[in-house]
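note to self: the first set is below, dont mix up w the second
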Amino acid sequence: MVTARKQLSQRADYTHKYNVRSGRHGWLRLTPAYSVKIVEELINKYDGSIRIFDPFCGTATTALSAAYHGHEGVTTDINPFLIWLGQAKTAYYSPEIIAASRFASIRALEIVKKGGIQGVPRPPIHNIERWWSENALIFLCQLRAAIDEVTQVDSQQRTILLVAFCRTLIALSNAAFNHQSMSFKDSDRIPLLLDVDMCSSYAEDVEFVLLGAAENPTGTGTVILGDARNPSAATNGLFHRVITSPPYANRMSYIRELRPYMYWLGFLEKSRDAGELDWLSIGGTWGIATSRLNEWQHESDHFESDLLSAVRDNMTHNDNKNGRILANYVAKYFDDMWMHFKGLRSMLAPGGEIHYIVGNSTFYKVLLPVEQLYAAMLKTLGFQSIKCIALRKRNSKKELIEFDVTATWHG
């Protein structure tokens, strides 16, 4: 007999690329397994207990890995949803909380099965019917309401149930994540959900999340709302290591990828909110953020580089009608990273080591050597022992490579 979870996994065909270990890294299937592996390998090098900082939280991979290895991990991000998720992943969950969460999930599903609750309003996602079938939407709206019914606001039980809810809503969706960016499956390839027991699927997701919640780290993880352009504003004390993967300069909108979670959990209320947040994020260009690039200008204190100027000129004059916007996008990206690296210096202990996992990019056949420009900025700011270590090819294009840009700070 084919289980509901197996049927759903056939629809979520991106899951093989993502870390689904029993710990908390795989709670939302957002962290590629190779990213977790890189972070684990870097953290494994360090003995004793040290302070590790990640200024680009993402799904809190670095902070969680640091805590699992007995270190103190601190991470920041400008996206409130990622702060919520990171705090959920790094929290301590007692056996009593796990038991109470399991009981709450059973109660929520009983309410849904009885049909005794009015579902929450459908989130204002454009063309939402493209995301979910009618049956799935009805189920998700009722389940979301039932979770609120059986748990208290801001309780750990609600957090656990909402993490599982996020897993389920993506598994039930028509979205495909087997490309660099999200896409939708062709309508003739979308299996019908009529034979899928959605309640059982959610129950399995709850058990998966509870299994990870039971694996409490021995160290600590702290997740803080903050802007990476001013990293010291949200934190205190000095750090021995920085391990992070900043946004790549490739115009991929992380807000766009996170929209389904953010709408269903109330972090977004209208499409303009997503564009505004993308504009505040480093490397974001979606919605209103793209149009604003037309009028964008350098900050008075910005990074000067002949290499960067040459790349921007090539973009502008390479028979590309969007050349000016792309050139401004690249300039803004490095202006933001320049501010970040400048602010980072005051946060590092003497001998502090940094690791930036980042890939280069191409724009209409113009190569943007991000790793070289990072290295140039670090050298200008007084960092030492700077290296660009190639880690892997990013795809079939031989020129696209992921690097570990590493350096030390001696003050």
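second set (the one i keep forgetting abt)
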Amino acid sequence: MLLNPRDALANALIARDRAAIAGMDAGLAALPQTRFALRPENLVGLDALRRMGAPVDLSTAAVRTIEAELPTFAALVDGIEASGKGLVMTMGKGGVGKTTIAAAVAVELAGRGHEVLLTTTDPAAHLTETLAGDVPNLTVSRIDPEAETQAYRDHILASKGASLDAQGRAMLEEDLRSPCTEEIAVFQAFSRVIREAGRKFVVMDTAPTGHTLLLLDATGSYHRDVMRHAGENASHMTTPMMRLQDPERTKILIVTLPETTPVLEAARLQEDLRRAGIDPWAWVVNASLAATGTTHPVLAARAATEAPEIAKIRNGLATRHAIVPMLAEDPVGAARLRALVRQSMKLAVATGDL
């Protein structure tokens, strides 16, 4: 891409690319290289893949910039805040920006004077780096599977194992090395966090889809087991799964990118959640070029390809949604996270309704 003095986003992306290439490990830099230009289209389908190495032709990618009203991230946070407390969970595949969106929601709610716990089940756990400092009213934690499993093992050995002889204790220790032990330990930590949402806002950045669905499976299994043994007391019980299924207590935000594959995977996640009786509260379309008003010809052409995906979300997949623009700078630190929530947007799309 060529520099464009009137487009800060394009220039930032070019500078980021050049810095990454310049900072490449010496061993990698010494290998033979083939470089491909950023294309004005998504590389989906055989024809698009065949064009991957061809010169970029913008003659057929006429794009006009128009003003359009888009649902903002700030309006979504207003809806979350209205309940005064509760659990907010960001879900989606890896790399779509779940951590950033979770941190932005938490920082904004804390800035409005609410007590907020921001936590994560993601093994990558980038929350601290994203916040880059302390925020008033905001506490940060992590559900660490390894730490939770060790604490659970120690508790069981100290309680049930205290009265056992050497052989019995050895058998108990063997049982605690089962993979099920980690599942139980993480589920218990997850349940504690859910309970905290009964008195304040808890924003949870979840692990990528596969890990999250496993955790929800454990939650569902526990719910079914409890209800099976509850008998006449069932109507007076509230399990973690019941809290997740209650839209007044839990708001699930499905985070995606405005591209074919991420939207398809997000739709599948929504189907899985609905089969568990959990209805996502909103979708967040992250890193949208269409929402930036970019005038760079390559980026504007790519922005036009977002229109069908945004329309699919807006007109069928989501009950409510927000569009978050791609930023020239990474949203690291409380100030930039607040700015992300409050972004004003212009829409760059090809002709056609969203």
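remember for set 2: The radius of gyration is 23 Å.
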